[in-house]
Design goal:
By secondary structure, this protein is an alpha+beta fold. The protein folds into two domains: 127 residues, 2-Layer Sandwich (Ribosomal Protein S5, domain 2), CATH 3.30.230; 53 residues. It is 31% helix and 36% strand. The chain contains five helices and ten strands; from the N terminus they run βββαββαβαββαββα. The strands form three sheets. It has a five-stranded antiparallel beta sheet with strand order 2-3-6-4-5, with helices on both faces. Strands 8-10-9 form a three-stranded antiparallel beta sheet, with helices on one face. Helix 2 packs parallel to helix 3. The protein is elongated.
Length: 191
């Protein structure tokens, strides 16, 4: 699986219609909604704002696409197929169309949306998706320096800490490193 870390965009002109492809990271459907609202604000005169997204959740994948008034199956689905084909997750892909006066036909629309989606994905810097997990644990003060060192070596970070008689931490690290860390500090981490 792959993801992106920042927004990318491209623009194309096909038979006088202007197509703008945007791809953005989105971790949940609320972020998708915010991004789509912003697209509508940024492009109030667009003929169509077509989108597709794939988000990984604890319960599996959430995937949606929308033709935004184009003939059924000519816009949203071709975009979505590129997300699936590249195994992209936690991403929103939008293609904005400004109609130029020449009808493209169903096949032409499908090619235009598909090619715009493909080009914007090709312009993006793709990264291997690393699933992160959070865990809470309690340490003695003398354990903290060694724990921090090992957590850092395993690409983890402390995201919350509370100092009392003992130190209460919330950490985040790649899921693949959780077992190794818990083996080094047995009894501290809940798997």
């Amino acid at each position: 699986m792959q993801c992106i870390k920042s927004k990318y965009s491209i623009e194309d002109s096909i038979k006088k219609s202007r197509f703008i492809g945007l791809i953005a990271p989105c971790l949940n459907e609320a972020e998708v909604g915010d991004s789509l609202k912003q697209c509508h604000l940024d492009h109030p005169n667009a003929s169509h704002i077509v989108f597709a997204y794939r988000i990984k959740t604890a319960n599996g994948f959430i995937s949606r696409f929308n033709d935004a008034g184009e003939p059924s199956g000519t816009a949203g689905k071709p975009i979505f197929q590129h997300l699936e084909g590249k195994e992209l997750i936690n991403v929103l892909l939008v293609v904005i169309r400004y109609f130029g006066g020449i009808k493209l036909g169903a096949g032409g629309l499908t090619r235009a949306y598909s090619n715009t989606a493909k080009r914007v994905i090709e312009s993006a810097e793709l990264h291997r998706f690393i699933e992160l997990v959070e865990r809470r644990l309690t340490l003695d003060y003398k354990q903290l320096p060694a724990f921090e060192h090992q957590l850092n070596k395993m690409d983890g970070e402390i995201i919350n800490q509370n100092f009392a008689e003992q130190i209460h931490l919330t950490i985040q690290l790649p899921k693949d490193n959780l077992i190794a860390l818990s083996e080094q500090f047995s009894g501290l981490l809940l798997l």
